[in-house]
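Late entry, written up from scratch paper. The run itself happened at the end of the previous shift, but nothing got recorded in the book at the time, so transcribing now.
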Amino acid sequence: MPAKRRSHMCCFAASRGTDSAPHPESKKFASPGAYGVFSAPVAIELYTQVFDEIGALDKLENFLSVNGPSFYSFAPSEETTTLVKKDWQVTEPVTTEEGENVWPVGHVQRGLGNETIHWQIAR
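Output as recorded:
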């Protein structure tokens, strides 16, 4: 899969609907719980998976990297991200500076549905 350009993060979050306000474990699993899905750590991989499933990988770069910045009159970033087709699962939470765990969607124990993600950002 060819490398994809990254959009400016403000454009990515604003134009893709990724959750930019994740809730720490202390609030997410409290009563009443904090609503929302923390998708930002796996958003690129999940979008790639959906575009692959519908046979539209040729439209992914524009969706992720060109349309958002263009809407806000920014030039697309020159940075690239390489994605590989590889099955994996989210196994670790994101830990805040305060030491609180935040659980991304798809986490094997606390996520939605114990999902296997079929694309991964090459590291």
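The beta strands are 4-5, 80-81, 83-88, 94-95, 101-102, 117-121.
(Scratch paper discarded after transcription.)
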